[in-house]
Amino acid sequence: MQFNGLLFFVIVICVGYLSVKSRLVPESATDVLPPLLLNVCFPAMLFTNFAGTDIQELIGVGVPTVIATLVFCLLPFFVSIALFRRVDADRRPILRYLSGIGNNSFVCIPLLSLFLSPNEMTVVFIHGAVVDFLIWGIHHQVFLGSSGSARRDIVRKVLLTPNLIAVAAGVLCSVFAVRLPEFLTDTLESIAAAVSPIALLFIGMLICRYGLFGWIKSRTAILYSLWKVLALPCIVFGALYFILPLKTACILAIALGSPAPITAVLWAKQYGKDTKLAVDCLIPSTILYFAVMGTVLALLLKSGVIGG
């Protein structure tokens, strides 16, 4: 089943690539799909997951997941402040953003959902909610600046992000044992099921738009991909192995090793930063993540560490 799922990944990415290459779909579709995924499909997935999770289990896995995510997302960010202080202004915020934030919605969740049970996916969703908070609470400010209007926009983004609202609503339903009508639950689950296809189509379209091998001469992109997908997960696992259950440590290490986020490209375009750098880091880190973590997840499933 997992092998068929990985074939599905490859095929849908190719369909996205060819649909733009053959002009069946306009290139501008790459500007439309991210809001649809992040503001509609992904919140539906988060709500249905949290609403169906036992509150005791949610607390049990939630607290260590929140702490681990905060530590291993913020530490690289603070290190990057000193590390990239002399880098050009149009590259500095991108490198700081990429250092600790990964592509949770478009890559991590679709891949891990092939191998993990619904209960195990709760760790991934909690991790994603914390990352979402950090994205709008810290990193967006780096791109916008620190004016009063920027701070107000950040507060609004943090409080009104559809993903965080969906998580809060799902947790409340779990706490108070609220059960939605069956037709509404079925509708939300159908919308949530579109997450993987839309995310993979978008990746294929993005590769067509910017080129598959444009990064190959970028030393920064290659070093970043090796850091984010290989080195950081090893560091995370080494630290969490002695603190958390083996399964949770593995899942968090894989989630925190997710590749460069799509928002880096979108924000770079929107705020006049180095878009090519963002794209150069996105494509190789995504390819490496699928190859490495797909293999790791298959081995963990075969050994019985995950999937239960």
General description of the model:
- The structure is a single chain.
- The protein is an all-alpha fold.
- Helix content is 77%, strand content 0%.
- It is built from 14 helices and no strands.
- It has helices spanning 2-21, 33-51, 55-83, 92-100, 104-112, 118-144, 148-160, 162-175, 182-192, 195-210, 219-240, 246-256, 262-270, 275-303.
- Helix 2 runs parallel beside helix 8, helix 2 (33-51) crosses helix 9 (182-192) and helix 5 packs across helix 10 (195-210).
- The longest helix is centred in the N-terminal third of the chain and has 29 residues, at 55-83.
- The chain is globular and about 50 Å long.
- 43% of the residues are buried.
- The mean pLDDT is 89.
Cα-to-Cα separation, first versus last residue: 15 Å
Query: Compute the gyration radius: what is it?
Result: 19 Å
What structural category characterises the helix and strand content?
Answer: mainly alpha
**Mean model confidence by pLDDT:** 89
Helix content: over 70%
Say how many strands there are. 0
How many helices? The count is 14
How much of the sequence lies in strands comes to: under 5%
Largest sheet: none
Task: Spell the H/E element sequence.
Answer: HHHHHHHHHHHHHH
